[in-house]
Amino acid sequence: MSTLKVLDGDYSGWRCAACGQSLVMAPAVLEYMGSRFEVELPRCPACGLTLVPEDLALGKMLEVEKLLEDK
Amino acid sequence: MSAPEARQPTASVCPVCLRTIPARRETADGVTRLVKACPLHGEFSTPVWRGAPAFEGWLRPKTPSPPAEPATPRARGCPYDCGLCPDHGQHTCTALVEVTWRCNLTCPLCFASAGETPRPDPTPEAVARLLEGVMRHSGPCNIQLSGGEPTVRDDLPALVALAKGAGFPFVQLNTNGLRIAREDGYAEALAAAGLDSAFLQFDGVTQRPYEILRGRPLLEEKLAAVERLSRAGVGVVLVPTVVPGVNATELGAILRLGVERAPGVRGVHFQPVSYFGRHPGPPADAARITLPEVMTALEAQTGGLVRAADFSPPGCEHALCSFNASYLVGEDGGLTRLSRGGGNCCAPRPAAEGADKAKAYVARQWAAPRGAALPMAGPADDLDRFLARARTHIFAVSGMAFQDAWTLDLERLRGCCIHVAAPDGRLIPFCAYNLTATDGSPLHRSTAGRRTSHDAP
After folding, report:
1. Which of A11, B69, B311, B352 is 20 to 30 Å apart from B295, CA to CA?
2. How distant is the Cα of B354 from the closest Cα of chain A, in angstroms?
3. Burial level of B200, CB count in 10 A (0-12/13-18/19+)?
4. CATH no. for residue B199?
């Protein structure tokens, strides 16, 4: 499965607080209740810490979570 | 956590005289039986759960939510005081309104008043009064117009409009689909009146189940009804009555047929046979199929397209009454499970919360999808694709076990959320309403105004 951009915003200005490195877009796998979604998210190239921006978490991800939790 | 007791106390009725008697659920070697003894008519033992998922783990505890204003007082106790009485533990999710007792089929298995000359249909004014009563006691719950076969009434579209106009957001028709299949424009007339969903009797993908259960081959008409309802924008739920030796080997094929016809078909709702009417002796164990047997058969007969472990006990009715799972139908026809399978052992939730969720779920899932997916701006990612597909292609698989005089468990009955609006205005849990003793006499359902042998204690 291909990974595709889920974010339109520019996250190149974000730095990892621990490593001081600029975040770069990298493939990430979101898993919830047995379903997998392959996406791209900003990540620290040194420690691998991945940023899930608030608007994604409270937007599309929340919508998908609610569907997966159906009933 | 300790294992649940292998003997759980509950209460039931004697199948012969319908008096309330103590009962217990006894589990041994993967089989749970409801065992009870009447001082006059002896012991009865009936299988209610066989195989996996195991009985012990199939839990979804609820704190009872009694009616805000009970319509009948506590007098003789469950199941005699229905109305609802103060001891009932769950609100109305679906209210059934019987709009006729006539039918255009003569099914040997029917639990609606069979064999006798049916009473006259209730007038539209009487139906309106019943709906007002449901609204007063249960609020804007889901409505199922039932019978008899409702489509024998020429004014059925007007009754659908009446229910919608009374403020019920979801109106479903329980039907054999014959008139819909035969009459051009009828599905459209029902849709125009506001019908959301059809609960379509659908017993198999071959003629044999129809010949045995309904007395005639009906497959072509069933398929035509599915197509016409889907085209008219009425959500279709396929409802097989599952009978061992008749159609229990067709469950997987029915499921596949439904999935192939998604999103017009919204789901399949399996109903294991239960026994109403005259029965000189208890039905044989082999004449019953329990919920876990249906779940296991679905896994085996679909080659794992669905799995028994996918299914969950209900949040609304009693755990032992049903199972359900939701799936996303992929573009390749594959299914992705949405709900988490398995029971929930540890945290009782208020019953009312489950009723509210189930009401909303049924209204959303069993109606036709609202509009096609919108074209997306920009490149779609996995999340976008999932959300777009989910707008139209969620498919529900569920099963519900009705209780008869042998299997009636009063703890389950008090958790019931499917209530029949009786002609006298009382709301009566479905299984209590249809309950008959072995001589065929009913507990609650009135037959042409005649008193029954169970009116007196």
Report:
1. B352
2. 9
3. buried
4. 3.80.30.10
